[in-house]
Design goal:
Four copies of one chain form a homotetramer.
Chain A lengths: L2 E11 L1 E7 L6 E13 L2 H5 L9 H15 L4 H15 L3 E11 L1 E6 L2 E9 L4 E9 L6 E15 L24 E11 L6 H18 L5 H15 L3 E10 L2 E3 L13 E4 L4 E10 L17
Antiparallel strand pairs in A: 2-3, 3-4, 4-7, 5-6, 7-8, 8-9, 9-10, 10-13, 11-12
């Protein structure tokens, strides 16, 4: 009945990196939150307090900044893969690396009908994300890329029904043929390989999800999510599976009858908690094995 | 040396109201957080626990929903004024009302190159705000409208210097002729009267501030704020004064010299805390008296 | 109709200072968030971008750390006063200084029935605060100290009624003779002078407020707050006035009648928003003039 | 290459339940945030929008409140197990249930040296948690209970070293034999079975972790975590494994040498981001299979 060290990893979380490209007077900017994590043969650090295999998290942070300057950043997926490979090549005890990057979007400030060269305003249509896992190197290198978007808040004022549901002794909910449907979507998709134009794929997948959310006549949030995921897989052969986590942000029709007022779907109370939470995934039958691609990603079944 | 009740007010905070206009299949939406507050002759409630003068905060919440349905919402300034006047006409003990409204912006989801009729995505370019104070009614009615924007995050990658500052024994900061300037602006302006096209004024004032932030070559955040405020007052005679509260969101150039790497203004560390906090106001000499217009608004000198 | 600079101030916000006293093996710790702010003759910085009168906020941050080491910290009120006087003596253009400090409390970790010498656990019974304003120096020096506590969350399961209130056309609330009363109190009191044992006064005032909250049979949150404030002023002649801001954190009795279940004050739904917000102050008739003591402190009438 | 529904679950998240026990005038309170989730044969809802198998999340919320009244709450582990079994017995399509409960702690307000009967103050020493998964029923019923604590913020001012670590080209960190060690611990342990006195086990495991944190002379956060976990497993045979996620909340010694000041471990800057993030688990060799016990729990390797 021995007691021993189980799975473990360590790294630097939430390195706030802003990378400016000043090749021309029309600057570009990538604004990232980078988290790095290593796993492998780090037993000595845990059991004996011996750090000789441990690259400090401070050095991991320095690496993020140094590689951003030396090699540039590009798409967050490429930068994450580059970081992971670098750590696996540098730290002998590391067998795997997990890099998570959030990208915060900026738009150019409009001046005289044109985006300004070097002045930006933060855009709020969601945060782009990626979680990259690399195990091993050379011929044994195994790679997983899970990209996504979070904090994408969408709402439709009609085109959403909810009825015909299972009822038990504690069911009081009224059926409805017209309600507000709203969610703050977290959506993550796993790429089948790494030969992808990441920026282009991201833009297309997000646009597709927005369009499908708008167009699907909804009989439940489950069905809307499934339809969104299905379209992504149909149009993006490079995507092996997609997972969505969607709080059902309830908008309750306010009962104004005590005041002799009708409320024909016009006045709603937007509730904070509790909220429905719907999690669904859509997959290809022939998707490659996920391995540890989804490990430690919160909020998904 | 008597002890007595001092200033007091009470109300319902953060009523989350979503008002849908379905006059045509192309719906409109206003998504508001409304806080109401009454002040006046409420001593009995405090000193004796006698509620006979106190309209419950629950009734205030109901009123927000009921008036939104019965009378519509329109610009947040108009809705706030309407609520304030309603409470002062309804509650005999109320001598003043303070209504604060935040508006959360939605954009239509683009589908086939056109905004969808009833599907929206949350936009993140700041939150529109208003704080309305009304005292009394009829001939003695006194009104103050302070509108603004908050969470407007802007950044410029160049065109910002900081040097020639006062130095004391604890000064170690290096002077710079090129730095990133970034802030999450809170800006509030007081209208001189209420004969204003609120939506139009808001759009113009925000656009003007963004443009000025972009165009002013900055020698300090103070100077940028002053220039932004000055332009607003020059172009908007209906604005009596403007106050801005601007955290200087520091972006520190990372020292990569230990790694034999140059960093010509390309790699920055975005710090959370501490941050500089610059608060400035620009006023007209002939502005009407502010009275209690700014009362209880945090973060302003 | 000239346009000109209005009130302004600037400084460093949220400097996270941890000061350890290691005079004996039994260490002490003060964990502070310090914000400094200067006001005065800073027009040149705003209007012309001329920084020659401006001590950088970076130097203000350095000063917080340096004085903490050189002179020690002590009670947050003393440290704030010391910082304010230092800045006014150092920066010729500064006419006033505002220092705000939050103190985060730690308790010793119990080991073998005794608090450990150098290991601590964060305690959650509220955050101690102070806002100190100093104008001028020497004979003209004017000082205001407003101390307080925030995030002090309290609840009573009975001993709270609410009835006999004013009713209008939008009132639907039922009267009750037994409800949960809960709030997350922000309480701030202004000291009449600075000859105070700050730590002792703080402990006593907080204990008194807790006790009164527990003991007062409540007919409204207003009456509870007034009673709490009254006791503080009666027992603390050094306190000139006290202001309290108290969200009424609603706990709604869940209607279980659809399930043929009684609910005799046992099962409640704790709501987030909206909430009642009650703000009240208790003052002495002979309190000295507050001047700018309350300036920029949010959430108070 | 068919596209199909993958793993999915749905439920009601963050039901804020406060349960008062008023059997005697000395009331007791349990303040919980409950999230319920069902998984099973819900394909029709996703693929066809057919809700006939779906118990609404609103009914799940009602169930939380109704069972809290009808059957009482008790330890959060018991309440979670009771809810899970109830849903699996009630909803034919459900094959598994996941119930997550957070418990927020209250202490009695001290009055005259004794805890008050019905007045409480929120305590801040962490949030107690449990995640219960039940699959199937009767002979095939499989149960996993993972309990824990989060937001347990601890700090030691000495007794922590960090040196002898692996160095690469990007390493600049200085070795130290005395530093502040601080973390906001999330700790979760999996019980080997369900015949446990949950409240007693929780108190003991938390106390043990605090003690070990205090007593272990640390050569790295990894080693401290391992020692804490090891003690828990040695003293609690009912625990099969424990996982800890610990941000290394850096406290940097401020360099005061530019001001000719020594800083002998007294003045620190508490940084927000980035932070080290150490995740470690300690397991028994003969622990029963975890199955889906850890599924969807964020922040663990």
């Amino acid at each position: 009945m021995a007691i021993r060290l189980g799975p473990n990893q360590y790294g630097k979380a939430e390195v706030r990196l802003v990378r400016v490209s000043r090749a021309t007077p029309r600057h570009d900017i990538r604004d990232l939150t980078v988290s790095t994590s290593l796993r492998g043969r780090f037993d000595a650090a845990h059991v004996r307090g011996d750090q000789s295999d441990v690259l400090p998290t401070d050095s991991q942070k320095n690496t993020v900044f140094a590689l951003a300057e030396r090699d540039g950043v590009g798409a967050i997926e490429d930068f994450a893969l580059h970081l992971a490979d670098h750590f696996l090549a540098t730290v002998p005890a590391a067998e795997g690396a997990r890099i998570e990057i959030d990208e915060h979007t900026w738009e150019r400030i409009p001046v005289d009908g044109r985006g300004h060269d070097h002045s930006f305003v933060r855009s709020g249509r969601g945060v782009r994300t990626t979680v990259v896992n690399v195990d091993g190197s050379g011929a044994d290198r195994e790679v997983h890329v899970v990209s996504g978007i979070k904090e994408l808040t969408v709402l439709k004022t009609t085109g959403s029904e909810f009825h015909g549901f299972f009822k038990d002794q504690f069911t009081t909910l009224q059926e409805t043929e017209d309600r507000i449907l709203a969610t703050s979507l977290v959506s993550r998709w796993r790429y089948a390989d790494t030969k992808v134009d990441w920026d282009k794929a991201y833009d297309s997948i997000v646009a597709l999800q927005l369009e499908r959310f708008a167009e699907i006549h909804s009989y439940a949030l489950q069905q809307t999510l499934y339809g969104m995921g299905q379209s992504v897989l149909e149009n993006h052969p490079e995507v092996a599976e997609i997972k969505m986590s969607a709080p059902n942000k309830h908008h309750f029709l306010v009962d104004l009858s005590p005041f002799d007022l009708d409320n024909p779907g016009e006045v709603f109370y937007a509730a904070d908690r509790p909220y429905g939470l719907i999690e669904a995934s859509v997959v290809r039958d022939d998707a490659p094995d996920p391995g540890n691609a989804w490990h430690g990603i919160p909020g998904f079944c």
